[in-house]
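Example (one chain per record):
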Amino acid sequence: MRCGLLGRTLGHSYSPQIHRLLGDYEYDLFEKEPEEVASFLKSGDFTGLNVTIPYKKAVIPCLDALSPAAQALGAVNTIVRRADGTLFGHNSDYFGFAYLVRQSGLDVAGKKALVLGSGGASNTVVAVLKALGAEPVVISRSGENNYGNLSRHADASLIVNATPVGMYPNTGVSPVDLRQFPRLEGVLDVVYNPARTQLLLDAEALGLPCANGLWMLVAQAKESAEYFTGRPIDDAVIPSIHDKLSSQMQNIVLIGMPGCGKGTVGALVAQRLGRRLVDADSEIVRLAGKSIPEIFGQDGEAVFRDWETKVLGELGKQSGLVIATGGGCVTMQRNYPLLHQNGRIFWLKRDIGKLPTDGRPLSQANPLTELYARRKDWYHAFADFTVSNDGTPEDTAAAIISLMEESK
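Predicted structure:
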């Protein structure tokens, strides 16, 4: 049995990995241009397909039959070639988003829900919310309810982002300002990469329950796999696959005083988990074309911090890295969302007396006790976890890996 994903640009898809965990069948990526879709569906070598943007509507004229869900939504994301060669289309996104809502724990019945976007994903979100008793309102760029008159919906209880805004690689932007909605109870985003879009970061900052689209991605894949194989699959696989994927996707970010062992520990963690270690200071040196002492001496600390933010912005939105940061990155609050958007942040604490100062301009210019006193609250504010590195680097690496496992 040969299955796969049909789309136009699929380089960052996690579908093959998910389907390897769902069943014993081949799963490939089929990147096709619009003019190639019809002929591929007619004569392509596949048993079952998932369909992603921009083809969820375009495939419908090529299909012989649709499920009630696909008919109602006017979109298909699952295709099965039946025994007689005909093509059957279904939409498992409905099940996927319904699962996301249930998993979020949000009570949507009787609540006004703003659905950002009017594309195919929006149709699915609206259908699910209506079925759950919510009162969805679609916000589009130019419709009756648009981004220019959001004030009329200040009583919204839920916001769902059904647009690509904030998705990798264009992270750091949000479609709306959540502070406009004083009665907001929760935020959902169908985007799953990064783990925390700017919209979800803003929700976190306001103390609002929120969730990304990874639950939806895994749940819809589970239902698609049932259509591919013709066999039921227990819903219990969904959280198992979700947690495994979430852990693999998120970066492991190491912060702490200069010389606390971030590079050494990071190398061990990367080796044991099969990840790539990236040293932020080394990236700064590479891009600036000069050493860190030279940047400080010739350009000043402000220029160095700008370089640092630029590098952390590029690294932080990637997936599955181990990132060793510079000791002073926490002095700039702007760096926190860059690291937090797709990472878990570990503060390595080490006895001040064990910290070296060679080649570290700020450590040489300031007594380490004073430097630590100024920064400790920032380290604490950035960190998801605090780990002692007063023992062996091997023990510290093991502790970090254990915390990653426990926090799935």
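Caption: The radius of gyration is 24 Å.
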